[in-house]
């Protein structure tokens, strides 16, 4: 990675969110065409059927506009994360140092995917810990260890038997940064050793940080998505 590439990365929005917006816009255009076309029917029998279709199209249009608004809001937040990280690095003259540390061989890499189906993660990016930085590139963020206040796990229930657990860092600004996510079930063993290692590194770099690998919060995916709206 180069400084130029890192700056470019931090200015991007997740592809999953952008692609979903394009799909929703295409559906929105289709629904709008259905509504416009229904206005052409003048006779009563035909109009009754098209009114029902139009009502469905209007309802779908409202849902699509709502979902586009939510995704755009999250995409804007991800861009803000990147801009904030870039300001932190450049204002302190740390951009080249961060790149050099990230390029150091032998680092441990891990990922955090979309924990609540909100498509606000770069699912192809890796997170890592270096000498002086916490790289949470899946969330488009880079922070120093002194910015970490607490660590804990948030469990997002997808169903009665399947969940997603997210190892999270709480910052001084009150933001939750996802470092590692994994599927939690009776048949899957959580990566305890990796989580313990992450906790030990953060604690060594910032003794004031309250590190924990316990599940602090349990949320339902549907409830989480509803609260974000």
Topology:
Blueprint: H1 3-10, H2 15-38, H3 44-91, H4 95-102, E1 109-110, E2 127-129, E3 133-136, E4 141-144, E5 148-157, E6 163-171, E7 176-184, H5 192-205, E8 215-220, H6 221-228
Parallel strand pairs: 5-8
Antiparallel strand pairs: 1-2, 2-3, 3-4, 5-6, 6-7
Helix pairs in contact: 2-3
Please give a structural write-up.
Strands 1-2-3-4 form a four-stranded antiparallel β-sheet. Strands 7-6-5-8 form a four-stranded mixed β-sheet. Helix 2 packs antiparallel against helix 3. It is globular. A hairpin with a 3-residue loop joins strand 2 and strand 3. By secondary structure, the chain is of the alpha+beta class. It has helices spanning 3-10, 15-38, 44-91, 95-102, 192-205, 221-228; strands spanning 109-110, 127-129, 133-136, 141-144, 148-157, 163-171, 176-184, 215-220.
Notable characteristics:
single chain, 229 residues, 4-stranded antiparallel sheet, 4-stranded mixed sheet
Gross morphology is globular
Q: What is the CA–CA distance across the termini?
A: 36 Å
Strand order of the largest sheet: 1-2-3-4
Order of helical and strand elements: HHHHEEEEEEEHEH
The count of helical stretches stands at 6
Helical fraction equals 40-55%
Strand content: 15-25%
Radius of gyration: 22 Å
Structural class: alpha+beta
Tally the beta strands. Answer: 8
Determine the mean pLDDT.
83
Give start-end ranges of low-pLDDT stretches. Answer: none
